[in-house]
């Protein structure tokens, strides 16, 4: 996400007024498992996930029968380094927005369980477009 550093957050504040920052608090182990389970078919860009969208035959593209590869960014050691760097950079940004009273955190491990809470929160922040459109004369 953006901003990733306090300096970027301060620069963003000078350009626009931020009134809400959403933090998705997902355990690193969950993120690591999802990323390291991702394999791709380089020629087509098809993406497989060994946990929830696996190929029919492990390591083989369903359509072409060609081998799947794991991107360097998705290898366990790389994912761990990326998550550690993200954590080191992001904690100060989260604290920056927390001190301003703008941070809302949502914790969980599954999109379908987190999203309803985020959606309900956003409904309190965003105008209901259907009511706005209904009130606008044509």
UniProtKB/TrEMBL annotation:
Gene3D superfamilies: P-loop containing nucleotide triphosphate hydrolases (3.40.50.300). Keywords: Kinase, Nucleotide-binding, Transferase. One of its GO terms (molecular function) is AMP kinase activity. It comes from the Eukaryota. It holds the Pfam family ADK_lid. Residues 38-73 form the Adenylate kinase active site lid domain. SUPFAM superfamilies: P-loop containing nucleoside triphosphate hydrolases (SSF52540). PANTHER family: NUCLEOTIDE KINASE. HAMAP family: Adenylate_kinase_Adk. Belongs to the adenylate kinase family. This is KAD3 phosphotransferase. It comes from Calonectris borealis. The lineage of its organism: Eukaryota, Metazoa, Chordata, Craniata, Vertebrata. The gene is Ak3.
